[in-house]
Amino acid sequence: MLRIKYIFLFITLSLYSKEIVIDLVEQTLVAKDDDRIYLASKISSGAIGYETPKGTFYVFEKKEAHRSNLYPISSDGKRGGAEMPFMLKFKETGEAIHAGVLPGFPDSHGCVRVPLKEASILYFWADIGTKVTILGDAVQKYVHIPKSQYSELSSHIETIGASVFAQKGITSKAFYDKALELDY
User: Fold this and answer.
1) Residues facing 135 on adjacent strands
2) Please, what is the end-to-end C-alpha distance for the chain in angstroms?
3) Is the pTM of this model over 0.70?
4) pLDDT digits (tens, 9 = 90+) for 145-159
């Protein structure tokens, strides 16, 4: 049965001209169909020590509502549970494109996070066999922020966010709660 799966994948690859190109340096994703841009988005790729792999891959699994079996790692050593909405898996070791929080720099455990709206569009557009090309080296461009400084930075961002969202009638608590749903 495994042999048939790979034959089907080979046939699928030859039928589609869809491609997802990810630029780790610019932290961008472009979905193309016959060299026409279908979707462009900002991303957040793998953090230092969890770099997103470079190379050519193919989507081999899709799940609209998926949970990680690796992250987060809880204090008691149990793994998994992080939500990965609109997941397009491209590597056997678990790396995938999915909805998530974009802090403006590489911050994932190796996956490629995109905003929720773009992730849903990409999910329904991409097929099993869609080519995924990942270029660049993100960690050379971005400054690493030590975890010890996260709370200070987070409170500053929340203060700015509160004023922006208040103008739009959105409470920062509602925004924070939504971000927590997607954060891993």
Assistant:
1) 23
2) 35
3) no
4) 555 555 554 555 455
